[in-house]
């Protein structure tokens, strides 16, 4: 089984821990957490990301602007990217669209729905 890597750009340790718990429910999948835009750029440069999850509010970057920087750093266009935010669904969708994301998840996350969506994105949508 090929190990799939989900990169989660999130500065809140509780949100990162929740996502870790969700990703651990999917066999063959591991979560890598980047706590800032700088850490995300380094992780992307190192390669091996299969799915990008990005918080909207980061200490050193606007999440909705970070995707373009990560694509320029080497995140392949084939790697799906989802914005993860506590904004309303309508606002989240607008931020995601403007930032070039493939979709968005809104917090608080529903574990079953998030796991289901995670499966679909890692399977190629």
UniProtKB/TrEMBL annotation:
<keyword id="KW-0597">Phosphoprotein</keyword>
<dbReference type="InterPro" id="IPR050595">
    <property type="entry name" value="Bact_response_regulator"/>
</dbReference>
<keyword id="KW-0902">Two-component regulatory system</keyword>
<dbReference type="GO" id="GO:0000160">
    <property type="term" value="P:phosphorelay signal transduction system"/>
</dbReference>
<feature type="domain" description="Response regulatory">
    <location>
        <begin position="5"/>
        <end position="122"/>
    </location>
</feature>
<protein>
    <submittedName>
        <fullName>Response regulator receiver domain-containing protein</fullName>
    </submittedName>
</protein>
<dbReference type="InterPro" id="IPR011006">
    <property type="entry name" value="CheY-like_superfamily"/>
</dbReference>
<dbReference type="Pfam" id="PF00072">
    <property type="entry name" value="Response_reg"/>
</dbReference>
<feature type="modified residue" description="4-aspartylphosphate">
    <location>
        <position position="55"/>
    </location>
</feature>
<dbReference type="InterPro" id="IPR001789">
    <property type="entry name" value="Sig_transdc_resp-reg_receiver"/>
</dbReference>
């Amino acid at each position: 089984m090929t190990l799939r890597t989900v990169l989660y750009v999130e500065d809140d340790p509780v949100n990162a821990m929740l996502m870790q718990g969700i990703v651990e429910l999917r066999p063959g999948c591991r979560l890598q957490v980047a706590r800032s835009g700088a850490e995300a750029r380094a992780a992307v440069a190192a390669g091996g990301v299969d799915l990008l999850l990005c918080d909207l509010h980061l200490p050193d970057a606007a999440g909705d602007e970070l995707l373009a920087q990560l694509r320029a750093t080497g995140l392949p266009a084939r790697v799906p990217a989802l914005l993860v935010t506590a904004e309303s669904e309508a606002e989240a969708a607008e931020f995601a669209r403007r930032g070039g994301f493939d979709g968005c998840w809104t917090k608080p996350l529903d574990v079953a729905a998030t796991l289901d969506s995670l499966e679909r994105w890692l399977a190629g949508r």
